[in-house]
Amino acid sequence: MSESAVIILAAGQGKRMQSTLPKPLVPVAGRPILDHLLDAVNDAGIDEVSVVVGHQAEVMRAHLGGSVHTPLQAERNGTAHAVDVARASVQSADEVFVFVGDSPLIRPSSIEQLQEVHRETGAACSFLTASFGQHYPYARVVRGLDGSVDAVIEERDCTPGQLEINEYLTSHFLFDAEALWRVLDQVRPHPDTGERYLTDTIGLLLAAGERVEAVDIHDWRELVGLNTPEDVAWAEGILADG
């Protein structure tokens, strides 16, 4: 079995939450968003955890205690940069999950499914996806005629036709560690935002002839990131329904 680690991206401020707390610590059903995700990660058997902190870093670290790594992303220069900040903390792992810290609904079974497919196929990168029941500004998954992943394109870069795709990538990844570190340094800043995005690793891996797997789960709601008080209320309704 491979040594697994997870990097959770939790450095953002989350201004739209209208809270004095860092977004990952905003309560959902009485517990911080991040704690729901950490429970799912632990239940899926991933013991090596690195939470990238930034906004109110000391508040985050005080909440997390000493049981997880908390590398600091002092300047938020994109998701690829955040993973780079955490690289040293997961250096011993053979495979590296990367999750976003604002998704409390993901189930341990979905994480286990991601890992199972990743290992069975020998992919360099696998990610969770679903056909979403409503629009979100997420990257679109472009598939070839044989159903394989051809590309992943951020919404701002999509053609009108690609915008019609409702299969999204929401940044719930599992990488072969060697492949991740090989392409991460190749990710260039976006020409408009200046940030480096982890989604760009998909294109780099595909261009290198590596296998990328999109692992479709049944309930798209698991993959939604929370950004507003209305999102929190929505998630609480789902949790209340079981």
In short:
This protein is 31% helix and 22% strand. The protein is α/β, with parallel strands linked by helices and 242 residues long. It has one domain (4-241): Alpha-Beta Complex (Spore Coat Polysaccharide Biosynthesis Protein SpsA, Chain A).
Your description of this structure?
- This protein is of the alpha/beta class and 242 residues long.
- It has one domain (4-241): Spore Coat Polysaccharide Biosynthesis Protein SpsA, Chain A, CATH 3.90.550.
- Helices cover 31% and strands 22% of the residues.
- The protein is built from 8 helices and 10 strands.
- The strands form 2 sheets. Strands 1, 4, 5, 6, 7, 8, 9 and 10 form an 8-stranded mixed beta sheet that branches. The protein has a two-stranded antiparallel sheet with strand order 2-3.
- It is globular.
Write the layout of secondary structure elements.
Layout: E1 4-9, E2 27-28, E3 31-32, H1 33-43, E4 48-52, H2 57-64, H3 79-86, E5 95-100, H4 108-121, E6 125-131, E7 139-143, E8 149-153, H5 160-163, E9 167-176, H6 177-184, H7 200-207, E10 212-216, H8 229-241
Parallel strand pairs: 1-4, 1-5, 6-10
Antiparallel strand pairs: 2-3, 5-9, 6-9, 7-8, 7-9
